[in-house]
Amino acid sequence: MPGFLDLVTALANYEHLRPPSGEAKRRLAQDVRKGKLNLLVAEDSAKLVGYALYFFTYSSFLAKPTLYLEDLFVLEESRGKGGGFALFRKCIDEAVKTDCGRMEWSVLSWNKPAIDFYEKIGAKRMSDWLVYRLDEKSLRKVPNPRG
Questions:
Q1: In angstroms, how far is CA 110 from the centroid of its own chain?
Q2: What is the C-alpha separation between 30 and 90, in angstroms, rounded?
Q3: Dist CA 3 CA 19 (whole Å)
Q4: Dist CA 30 CA 6 (whole Å)
Q5: Sheet holding 102-105, edge to edge
Q6: Which of 51, 54, 58, 118 is flagged as catalytic?
Q7: Dihedral angle at the C-alpha atoms of 122, 68, 142, 32, nearest 10 degrees?
Q8: Fewer CB under 10 Å: which end of the chain, C or N?
Q9: How far apart are CA 50 and CA 75, in angstroms?
Q10: 104-125 per-position pLDDT tens digit
Q11: Is the pLDDT of residue 147 over 80?
Q12: Are 101 and 64 in contact (CB under 8 A)?
């Protein structure tokens, strides 16, 4: 688990985001252990070099689950060796095995290497859909219509 949490910090740094706090890391580890999230790891010489973190949502129109890939990350010095593709392929295999109607994920608009990879394998950008988010602070500010 410590190696995985170090990779989460490395992903945050790569994405120019604040890494999770100690408390957030504890919750993340606990949620993985409880099976709320599914974790795959890539190793090179017994060292963790990448991970994929996913969970399932549901499509009411397809009436099937959707595998949502939350994170796919490989350390920069380990890229280009097939680990990222192997993690992605395992997610695809899991989606097929669990009879998912689709697999989805988000990509930062500046991450051209990831975009090129996904488009090369046939993934389609969802141009009609915009991603919205209420962060934890905003969740508490939405008024309740019942007062």
A1: 17
A2: 23
A3: 14
A4: 15
A5: 38-44, 47-59, 64-74, 102-105
A6: 118
A7: -150
A8: C
A9: 6
A10: 999 999 999 999 999 999 999 9
A11: no
A12: yes
Q: Is 68 helix (H, G, I), strand (E, B) or coil?
A: strand
* Fold assignment, 2-139: Aminopeptidase (3.40.630)
pLDDT at 136: 87
Q: Are strands 47-59 and 64-74 parallel, antiparallel or unpaired?
A: antiparallel
Give dist(CA 6, CA 29) in Å, integer. Answer: 12
Residue 143 one-letter amino acid? P
Q: What is the DSSP string of 78-94?
A: GTTSSHHHHHHHHHHHH
- Domain range summary for the chain, segments of one domain joined by +: 2-139
Whether 104 and 66 have beta carbons less than 8 Å apart is answered as yes
Of residues 71, 58, 61, 66, the one with CA closest to residue 100: 66
Tokens 């500046």 sit at which residue?
110
